Amino acid sequence: MRVLILILLSLMLSLNANALAVASDYYEDNTLTLTDGSSKIYSIRLQNPDSFESRVKVDYDAQFMKAIDFKEEYTLPPQSSTRIEFNVTAPKYDKNNNLFTISYTVHQLTAPAGGGIPFLTKINKSIKLKVVEDP
Asked: Do residues 90 and 37 touch, judged by C-beta distance below 8 A?
């Protein structure tokens, strides 16, 4: 029994799993605060830590966000990252409706070649958009 446990532990430690990663701008309380009608750039970074090329697709909420130099599909070389910028524009201030959710989803389109079970990552992220009245 002890030998079996040692074999399982050594197998678990020898596995090396890398996957698509997404880093984004940080906002306190996950809330971007803008005065009505103003805009700000919000950026994300797609990171490929693997040793093979990866293709990804990005979907986003276009109500308040507009992607800058957007592509239908991004090809990430091995061990690289790509930055995507969104121009976030606040709507007109309404004291009864001033908190919104904006989101994006990153879909990995290719899996590594070779044996094993292919694993395609899908990462969904949302932040709050708080609109404040222009003083």
From this structure: yes
